[in-house]
Every structure is written in structure tokens, then in C-alpha cells.
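Input C-alpha cells:
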């Protein structure tokens, strides 16, 4: 090792696991939940228990979660396995979508077709008179980063939240333009995405995963 190498600070390689909550009755009905406080179904609770056992093997250092019941109950399963405390925060709640909340997908398209189409095109839209996606990222991403900065250099943070909030947070942390966030795709109930800290910032290592991540071999070489 050269003197220069010896003097160089150790590179941080922290990870963020962004975990969507388990199934709810409104998920089954394709009903827009937003910030409405809906509980897990029995199937959703079973999903959380199964996923918690997998995620516990990653040896997370901290858990932060939305305070809505579906996310809090999901986080509680990981806390039970790991013994970690959960920090709950409103900042990780799902997007508030005003008049869209409680409507099915079909009802939204029928009543708010132009607004829905504009949102799908990547335009900034206050769905149902609610939050912009950038406003969701404005409240959620700083909280995730704050908790990440408290980790050891190789630590792992588990963030338990909601599909829309996770997508906007990933988009913000990756430095993507807001109109491109939709390209990340959705998360299934109790699946997760993993961000890893690299030399150029955050990288997306796993997306919509339901099994433990495999090491990447031969990347870019």
C-alpha cells in the first residue's frame, strides 16, 4: 500500500433498503389509498413476516417507517426479528391525493381522465388536488438521508414506506429528473429496492426484489 492509499479516507458503502408495506384490502380493490390509514390484511401480515425474516439476514442497523398503520405493522415484523426499534415519521407517508383517495383505478380514469393522462406523461400534476410528486420527495428524501448519515460506514438502513413515496425518493436520490421517475416502475406488496453508496453517489442495486440480493460479479468489466 502506498503512502497515498494509507492516507486516503475509507470509502463508505452504506445501503438503503426501501421496503413497501404488505397487502391491504384497498390494494386488492385497486383503490387509491394515498394518505388514508388502511390496515394490512391477514395475507399482508403474512407477507410482512416472510419478508422480515429475509431482510433480517441483511443485518440492518436501523429501521425508519411511515406512521400509517400498513407501514407501521410491516416494520413491526422486522423489529420483532431484529430487536431494533422503529422510528416512525409522517414524512414517509404515501402521497396525499385529495379527491383521488378512495377511488378505484377505473373511477379515477373516468372522472379525472385528463389529469391522469398528464400525470402518466410525466407532467407535474396535483392528483385530486393533492401533493406534487416533487413535494413528496422534498419531505421523504431528506429524512432517509438523515437516518443514513447516522449509520456506520458499512451500515444498512431499512425504510418502510409506500410505493409512490419510495419511487419518488429513489428518483431524487439517484438524481433523475422528476418526469423520469415513473420509469422506475412499481413495487409489489412487501417487495423492496436497494440503493448502494458508490463513488459517484447512490446506485440502484435491486428493484422490486422479493428475495435476497445476489452479489454483482463482473460489473462494467
Amino acid at each position: 500500500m502506498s503512502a497515498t492509499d494509507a492516507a486516503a479516507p475509507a470509502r463508505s458503502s452504506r445501503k438503503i433498503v426501501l421496503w413497501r408495506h404488505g397487502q391491504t384490502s384497498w390494494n386488492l380493490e385497486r383503490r387509491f389509498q394515498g394518505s388514508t390509514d388502511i390496515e394490512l390484511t391477514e395475507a399482508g401480515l403474512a407477507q410482512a413476516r416472510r419478508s422480515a425474516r429475509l431482510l433480517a439476514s441483511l443485518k440492518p442497523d436501523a429501521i425508519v417507517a411511515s406512521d400509517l398503520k400498513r407501514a407501521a405493522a410491516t416494520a413491526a415484523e422486522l423489529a420483532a426479528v431484529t430487536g431494533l426499534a422503529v422510528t416512525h415519521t409522517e414524512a414517509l407517508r404515501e402521497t396525499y391525493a385529495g379527491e383521488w383517495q378512495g377511488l378505484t383505478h377505473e373511477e379515477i380514469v373516468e372522472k379525472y381522465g385528463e389529469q391522469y393522462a398528464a400525470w402518466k406523461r410525466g407532467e407535474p400534476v396535483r392528483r385530486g388536488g393533492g401533493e406534487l410528486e416533487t413535494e413528496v420527495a422534498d419531505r421523504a428524501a431528506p429524512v432517509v438521508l438523515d437516518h443514513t448519515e447516522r449509520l456506520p460506514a458499512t451500515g444498512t438502513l431499512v425504510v418502510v414506506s409506500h410505493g409512490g413515496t419510495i419511487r419518488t425518493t429513489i428518483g431524487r436520490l439517484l438524481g433523475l429528473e422528476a418526469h423520469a421517475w415513473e420509469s422506475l416502475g412499481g413495487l409489489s406488496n412487501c417487495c423492496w429496492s436497494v440503493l448502494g453508496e458508490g463513488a459517484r453517489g447512490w446506485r440502484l442495486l435491486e428493484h422490486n426484489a422479493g428475495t435476497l440480493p445476489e452479489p454483482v460479479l463482473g460489473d462494467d468489466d
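The chain has eight helices and six strands. The two ends are 24 Å apart (CA to CA).
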